[in-house]
């Protein structure tokens, strides 16, 4: 923070600019005031650590708070689709113009709305917006382009002047309110510290696995497992052998879960073990989980929220997870010998992990130089190539092989005739291809809605949408004979 600029002075002299931003985001004076005060209270706790102009930091806190609170809190307070009229100063025509613009902004997704407000009303650069929202500059351009495109197609808009908000002096009224919140927060913090200590002793120390926090999140390990792996966050670890049940304690923050394994044995044979019974507080899950012996971070199996719903698990309530009844698993369809029983010298380490939204996932550090993609394709196959410059193509439908390539973390979404069919996600900078089959028919599993039964030879349009990617990418397709 700049010398001589204190928190009180900042609230009195600068908070009105934040109020203007909050009004543009929320379209409600009471909600905007609440948003500004909440952001200021959050910023107060970090005030001594702010070395430069504090306004960008507080602005970032405000926008992030808006993104996290809007659906959960403010929408619930305004259930009507028709927004009430606001008593703004100025001519009636100007009020109507502003109202039309704000109604159109309200219909945009939150990220698009935030980008347009910061760009055109706060006059921030793309780099500043990216820093405020915690996204890449490319994502800012994408959100802005999509938001403007939707506004251009909005039938309620016409040529309108830039909205103008009446500036009102903040005075000391907001400072008094913010200081009141800070005092309440201090009192609650005393109670919270005592409760946190008790909870840490009873639950955290006994249940939570130890994490090496001296490393960046993307590189940390927990109980021998990467804390973050393939879009998941490891939250509990258990160890044992196949001769007895393997147990772990899990405090659910999500009811979509995955399992990773380190199953080891002195013999280096090709062996797969399925724990056919998985119990959550003694209630059986719908299917077992499988690990591949002597293959680290293997045996990735997951349960969806729908699959665990009959078990009546509750978020925040500790659950004992038990893996038992190990049996040999034939992973090769009878082409390899499978032992009659599981060898008793197999050691088991299992990690339970919860999914993390991509925008919140701690990606590894970007390398100084990205590996160029090799786009040389064999001439003997009938290839169709999709890229950022050519994301859509019409092909003859049939059994297709799709190979996805990218330089950076992100997602590629494939749609057939407008129906999302496959989603391929990367969480690292390893430039490698991922091969997927693309076909329709009963029983074929997709990550998106299933493609309808399409007769072979029918022309279809295949489109690729890139999300979060900051480097080069392409997708190759060819008929699977």
From TrEMBL:
Gene3D superfamilies: 1.10.1740.10, Winged helix-like DNA-binding domain superfamily/Winged helix DNA-binding domain. Residues 16-74 form the RNA polymerase sigma-70 region domain. The chain crosses the membrane at residues 188-208. GO terms for biological process: DNA-templated transcription initiation. It holds the Pfam family Sigma70_r2. GO terms for molecular function: DNA binding; sigma factor activity. It comes from the Bacteria. Residues 99-151 form the RNA polymerase sigma factor 70 region 4 type domain. Keywords: DNA-binding, Membrane, Sigma factor, Transcription, Transcription regulation, Transmembrane, Transmembrane helix. NCBIfam families: SigE-fam_strep, sigma70-ECF. PANTHER family: ECF RNA POLYMERASE SIGMA FACTOR SIGM, RNA POLYMERASE ECF-TYPE SIGMA FACTO. Belongs to the sigma-70 factor family. ECF subfamily. This is RNA polymerase sigma-70 factor (Sigma-E family). It comes from Longispora fulva. The lineage of its organism: Bacteria, Bacillati, Actinomycetota, Actinomycetes, Micromonosporales.
